[in-house]
């Protein structure tokens, strides 16, 4: 049984004033510490034209022999390729009008156990389509498209990558599918303007990377495509995700701390359509702090703001600030939960100093704030958060400062400067 109660809590005005001052001070540090500006395409070392066949070797050799600081440009029509690795200091530039398609042959991505393209209990049998590992100052640029082809029948199989992902639901196990782009243990990585579509698994993921700029990119997959997460910083520091459009079948952004802490992350001026919202979690065991999410429109995602952990994951989540959020039609505009999927263990999650400022939700929704215990509540401040009358508020062990501004109608637009 859930120990929920409905709240319409109105608190004294002085709390709201305190909150404003606090939020202003805290967001100075709670973001990417670098001064990030719009990236510029690097100069090219080679310009490649597609042969129409398998161009893996052509592209990989060009990347391997490209001078540091420069980019291999793909400049004509459609390239087909197996997995590629972008070396340190080198970038890939996919020109406007060009598509780089991942050949849907599981054997090409297999990590050795011959499990890629099958179901098992682990789901870690494939390498990514594009890997950046232990690199410094590498990137992916250009207004072209990288297509994971997860909607196309796999070579030697009778199904697509996405159909395999759906089979894992009924089989109660995991699909072995490649991520589209995986960055590991790198420094100063840029992903600029490119469109990343139809990823077989997480679309754009970075582990243990310090200095990561994701600017002006588009991520697209149908809302039914399972586990296609948009942009996932995992154990990363100094990250900026700005001016991006993300619409797919899972978290639009998911900040995690599976391999190390994630800190100093800015999520600015983005438009998210289908998906599961701006998420923190659930793998947050190493802790997440200093996250600043501002000027974000969510139009179609299941959740707006979602912070999730449980006693199995643990993790301290602190100094998370949201400012200027427009949520069109989320089921859960705000969802802060310390008992995510009721998974239990012996770790203690903590959600402290979360502030939500200037948020408007245009449709009725369910607002859920579930802490762990009276001595370990979710600590959140609300300032100028407008919600529609008829919304449901479920609160359990929630330490809320400020209040929801419940209105008959919040209109059909947020009217915040800079966001639609
Ligand atoms: C984050 O950026 C700041 C400012 O450039 C820098 O001093 C700091 O070392 C960076 N942190 C990491 C972990 O790279
Ligand atoms: C960022 O810019 C501000 C203002 O110009 C400057 O004070 C600060 O030192 C810069 N930080 C870094 C890490 O370059
Ligand atoms: C896969 O998706 C692409 C674009 O998203 C589309 O052009 C193509 O027709 C689709 N292919 C199949 C087999 O559905
Ligand atoms: C492929 O799948 C279809 C329908 O899912 C089925 O009718 C067909 O027999 C299958 N073919 C093979 C070779 O397994
Ligand atoms: C990247 O890091 C993850 C997490 O530590 C690890 O599981 C994966 O094997 C690494 N991949 C490569 C190519 O190093
Ligand atoms: C929101 O999504 C709906 C349905 O896709 C669309 O009609 C509308 O134009 C979108 N509005 C904005 C501001 O993105
Ligand atoms: C709950 O909020 C009050 C202020 O309203 C604060 O004094 C107290 O320390 C908070 N408790 C916890 C456990 O965060
Ligand atoms: C949010 O948008 C406004 C209006 O375009 C802009 O002035 C402000 O700098 C943006 N905030 C951030 C943090 O980018």
TrEMBL record:
Cross-referenced PROSITE patterns: PROKAR_LIPOPROTEIN
UniProt cross-references to InterPro entries, sorted A to Z: GH28_Enzymes, Glyco_hydro_28, Pectin_lyas_fold, Pectin_lyase_fold/virulence
GO molecular function, one term: polygalacturonase activity
Signal peptide: none
Any single GO BP term: carbohydrate metabolic process
Keywords: Glycosidase, Hydrolase
Similarity field: Belongs to the glycosyl hydrolase 28 family.
PANTHER family with a match to the protein in the record: PECTIN LYASE-RELATED (PTHR31339), PLASMIN AND FIBRONECTIN-BINDING PROTEIN A (PTHR31339:SF9)
Protein known as: Glycoside hydrolase family 28
């Amino acid at each position: 049984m859930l120990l929920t109660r409905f709240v319409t809590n109105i608190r004294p005005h002085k709390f709201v004033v305190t909150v404003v001052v606090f939020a202003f001070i805290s967001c100075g540090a709670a973001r990417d510490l670098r001064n990030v500006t719009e990236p510029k395409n690097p100069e090219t070392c080679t310009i490649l034209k597609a042969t129409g066949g398998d161009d893996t070797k052509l592209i990989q050799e060009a990347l391997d022999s490209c001078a540091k600081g420069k980019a291999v440009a793909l400049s004509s029509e459609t390239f087909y390729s197996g997995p590629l690795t972008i070396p340190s200091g080198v970038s890939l530039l996919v020109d406007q009008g060009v598509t780089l398609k991942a050949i849907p042959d599981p054997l090409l991505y297999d990590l050795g156990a011959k499990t890629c393209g099958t179901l098992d209990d682990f789901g870690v049998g494939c390498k990514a389509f594009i890997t950046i590992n232990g690199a410094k100052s590498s990137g992916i640029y250009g207004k072209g498209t990288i297509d994971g082809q997860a909607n196309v029948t796999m070579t030697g199989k009778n199904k697509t990558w996405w159909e395999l992902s759906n089979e894992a639901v009924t089989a109660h196990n995991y699909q072995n599918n490649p991520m589209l782009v995986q960055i590991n243990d790198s420094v100063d990585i840029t992903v600029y303007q490119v469109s990343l579509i139809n990823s077989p698994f997480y679309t754009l993921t970075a582990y243990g990377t310090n200095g990561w700029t994701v600017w002006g990119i588009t991520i697209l997959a149908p809302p039914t495509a399972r586990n296609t997460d948009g942009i996932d910083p995992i154990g990363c520091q100094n990250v900026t995700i700005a001016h991006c459009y993300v619409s797919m079948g899972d978290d639009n952004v998911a900040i995690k701390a599976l391999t190390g802490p994630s800190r100093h992350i800015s999520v600015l001026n983005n438009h998210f359509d289908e998906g599961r919202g701006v998420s923190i979690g659930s793998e947050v065991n190493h802790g997440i702090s200093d996250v600043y999410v501002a000027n974000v429109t969510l139009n179609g995602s299941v959740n707006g703001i979602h912070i999730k952990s449980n006693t199995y994951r643990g993790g301290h989540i602190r100094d998370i600030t949201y400012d200027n959020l427009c949520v069109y039609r989320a089921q859960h505009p705000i969802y802060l939960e310390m008992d995510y999927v009721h998974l239990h263990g012996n770790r203690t999650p903590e959600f402290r100093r979360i502030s939500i400022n200037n948020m408007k939700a245009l449709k009725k929704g369910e607002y859920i704030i579930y802490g762990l215990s009276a001595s370990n509540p979710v600590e959140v401040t609300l300032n100028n958060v407008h919600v529609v009358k008829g919304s449901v508020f479920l609160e359990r062990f929630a330490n809320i400062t400020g209040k929801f501004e419940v209105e008959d109608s919040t209109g059909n637009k947020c009217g915040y400067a800079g966001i639609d």
